[in-house]
Amino acid sequence: MALVPGTQAADITGVITFKGTPPAEKEITPIMDDANCSASYTKAPLTHFYAVNAKGELGDVIVSLKGVTGQSTGASAPPVVIDQKGCLYIPTIVAVQTGQKIVVKNSDSCVHNVHDKPTVPGNNESNDVQMPGGADLTYTFAKPEPFLKFQCDVHPWMFAWVTVSDSPYFAVSDKDGKFTIKNVPPGKYTVEAVHRKLGTQTLDVEVKDAAVPANFTFEAK
Amino acid sequence: MSISAPKTSSPWLFRFAGLTALATFLLIGLGGLVTSHGAGMSVPDWPNTYGYNMFAFPISKWVGGIFYEHTHRLLASAVGLLTTILAVWLWLADPRKWMHWLGVAAFVGVLAQGVLGGLRVTMHMDSLGVFHATIAQLFFILICALTLFTSRFWKELAAHKKNFSIALGLRTLALATTLLIFVQLTIAATMRHQHAGLAIPDFPLAYGKVWPDTNPEAVASYNARRVSVTEEAPVTAFQINLQMAHRLVALAIAALIAACAWLAWKRLGGKDSLTKLAIFWLALIFVQIGLGAWTIWSNKAADVTTLHVMVGALSLVTGALWCLIGFGRSVSLPQTQAPGVFGVQTSMMANK
Question: pLDDT for A163-184, tens place per residue?
Fold first, then answer.
């Protein structure tokens, strides 16, 4: 679909909800065996696969416009920051555009290696050392790729997942399950919501001159 | 090439080969710990370590996954040195020409293993890890074979071989079983380097069934329910089928080794060294199956999984040594007349 950004654009907003009981998260017990990492915790933190709040709203869902490609403004978009803090990546689910900078910081007092593992040809794998207090590391990816993995092999429980799109029309649902895809030009679209564990849902919408709702419900499998 | 035994042998050469085999076995264990801890890429550079000369890397920095990867590299260097000395020693002291070339093969093998391990890091290729793990098993067989060939036991085979010939059928069965164990270890290496050791999280059933569903909906459901601290990639139908193959091949191996032990007992008697070795082999495989189950039940605890790797290597080398001894007892073993040098003993009791 050909888009003309800026002409009577409107937002697509919605809430993602989760129906059922998510699998129990696990304690990241190895983190307490590492003297550097355990200093940040009194008990082992939990894995973070299902960001479901008490109301059943689901965070960390990537929402985008299916089939809208070749629209990246990543080169001029502000960088997205991933921090390494308490020997965890924060945040763990991130979305960027092709060509958009991802800045990885190390706020810990220990060394990490930042190892990105793309699987799409054209996106290059790297494995970089980041000492405590070391300079930020910057990454960009040329090709769209869902859930591109970043990991630390020094601390093998550390993962972050970056979805790379070649359009600016995407959002990540927050802890209340809310998302907004901003400034979508008028037209008919298929909105796609993807959770790394629960898969994909789609919804057809038409954008005119006012905000368009798009709500999704994922169910436990 | 004729499989011959020297008239004379050096106990120190035998002991040194044994030391190299032991170091290689421990190296396989340490390599297992590297993969079990997901630490294969924790040192991003090679042959340096975080910019340091590998041997000058400060101990204070051996933290997290770095500890496993760095100590693996150091022990690998030690095995490289031991293998080099062994190859030179064989070339100079062993009168058998073919032993010279086996020593050279070990030297080339340890070099290739080192470079392969390094390339796996610098080229970011998990798939090279499968070859690295598989070649390690072959290298271990080679070093153990060199230990056997330098032993007094091997020398005595030459003297007594006419009374101890092993039937072709039994030898073929043992060889086929050993080859199947090698196939099994290759499957295991593929599973481990895809971090798919827990592609099926239950045992003896598989996702609650005798044979799990692997249609896309079922696999999506498994992945949705899978919460793991260190293995975050979704499992695939291929990985589930691979683990089922691993389980079935394990049963086949156990049955074949039981057949070997039974045939050896029947044809050679309970006191024969090959019968005893076959019974040890069978015991080892039962331990190995138990460790495989424990690996699943422990949620792939690194120490249990690594023990599973080490006993797997021991099972393979036991089969290989059984075959070599069985073959050695069944073919002509001419004694080499050439005198040894550099510490080769002249006494028949030299290895005692």
Answer: 999 999 999 999 999 999 999 9
Neighbours of A33 (CB within 10 A): 10
User: Which of A28, A49, A156 has its CB closest to that of B38?
Assistant: A156
Q: What percent of chain B has pLDDT over 70?
A: 89
Residue A24: which CATH number? 2.60.40.10
Q: Is the CB of B227 less than 8 angstroms away from the CB of A26? A: yes
Residue among B41, B220, B226 whose CB faces A113 most closely: B41
**Residues A122, A80 share a domain:** yes
Residue among B14, B5, B83, B10 at smallest CA distance from B341? B10
Q: Give chain A's radius of gyration (CA, Å).
A: 18
Contacts of B252 (CB under 8 A, 6+ apart): B180
Whether A15 shows a pLDDT value over 50: the answer reads yes
Give the whole-angstrom CA distance, residue B76 versus residue B30: 9
Contact by Cβ (8 Å): A162, A94: yes
- Three-state secondary structure readout of B262-274: HHHHHHHCCCCHH
- Is residue B238 pLDDT above 90, yes or no? yes
The pair of three-digit structure tokens given for residue A78, joined into one six-digit string: 């502000």
Q: Measured over all CA atoms, what is the biggest interatomic distance in chain B, rounded to whole angstroms? A: 71
Give CA A173 to chain center in angstroms.
Answer: 9
For residue B201, the distance in angstroms to the closest alpha carbon of chain A comes to 14
pLDDT per position as a tens digit, B52-91: 999 999 999 999 999 999 999 999 999 999 999 999 999 9
Task: Tell me what percent of chain A is helix, strand and coil, each rounded to the nearest 5.
Answer: 5, 45, 50
Band of pLDDT at residue A8, cut at 50, 70 and 90 = confident
Q: Determine the angle formed by the axes of helices B302-328 and B237-268, rounding to 10 degrees.
A: 40
Could you tell me if A163 and A181 lie in one domain?
A: no
Same domain for A5 and A58, yes or no, is yes
Same domain flag for A76 and A153: yes
Q: Which domain holds residue A13?
A: 1-68+175-221
Beta strands in chain A (DSSP E): 10-19, 62-65, 80-85, 88-90, 93-97, 102-106, 112-117, 126-130, 137-139, 145-151, 159-165, 170-172, 178-184, 187-195, 199-207, 212-213, 216-219
Q: Per the structure, how many domains does chain A have?
A: 2
Give the pLDDT band of residue B179 (cuts 50, 70, 90). Answer: very high
Q: How far is A111 from chain B (nearest CA, A)?
A: 9
Tens digit of pLDDT for each residue in B255-283?
999 999 999 999 999 999 999 999 999 99
Quick one: A152 and A85 in the same domain?
yes
pLDDT bin (cut points 50, 70, 90) of residue A5 is low
Both A94 and A159 in a single domain? Answer: yes
Asked whether residue A164 falls in the same domain as residue A79, the answer is yes
